[in-house]
From TrEMBL:
InterPro entries: DUF454
Membrane topology: Multi-pass membrane protein
Protein name per UniProt: Inner membrane protein
Record localization: Cell inner membrane
Primary location class: membrane
Lineage: Bacteria, Pseudomonadati, Pseudomonadota, Gammaproteobacteria, Moraxellales
Keywords: Cell inner membrane, Cell membrane, Membrane, Transmembrane, Transmembrane helix
Organism of this sequence: Psychrobacter luti
Ranges that cross the membrane: 21-43, 91-110, 116-135
Cellular component, GO, one term: plasma membrane
Length: 140
């Protein structure tokens, strides 16, 4: 007698909205965020993780099927599950995000006109705040 190996699937926590219009809006936004996340894999300027997490949040409110697919995805599933379960981010992702924000901010300081330097300082404050927020989250 052979035993069949059963795959483990994570059951997503969905909170579908009752209005069809709102569900369709979240469904479309989820696909937009997912595509932006995929573009973020190819372009170093765009982040991937925030868009994938936004897609998961939108799909949790609109489509059990897409949310289930994303949460059990080969590459993105673990990150989404860690975020939904514990609001946790991998340590390497925290460092990578911080390094990329630092490089982007430094490049902005060197490339922005002198009369617009306040924009660079504003971005530096925002990026520092994001880095502090990231490192306060638990490690996945």
């Amino acid at each position: 007698m052979t035993q069949t190996k059963k795959a483990f699937y994570y059951r997503p926590k969905t909170n579908q909205h009752s209005s069809p219009t709102v569900r369709w809006t979240f469904l479309i936004l989820g696909w937009i965020f997912f595509v932006l996340g995929i573009i973020g894999i190819l372009l170093p300027v765009m982040p991937t993780a925030p868009f994938i997490l936004l897609a998961a949040g939108c799909w949790a409110r609109s489509s059990r099927r897409f949310h289930f697919w994303l949460i059990n995805h080969k590459y993105f599933g673990k990150y989404v599950r860690d975020w939904e379960d514990r609001r946790a981010v991998p340590l390497y992702a925290k460092w990578l995000a911080t390094i990329m924000m630092t490089i982007s901010t430094i490049m902005l300081f060197f490339n922005i006109p002198a009369d617009m330097i306040w924009v660079a300082w504003l971005l530096a404050v925002v990026c520092t705040s994001v880095a502090v927020f990231l490192f306060r989250l638990p490690n996945a």
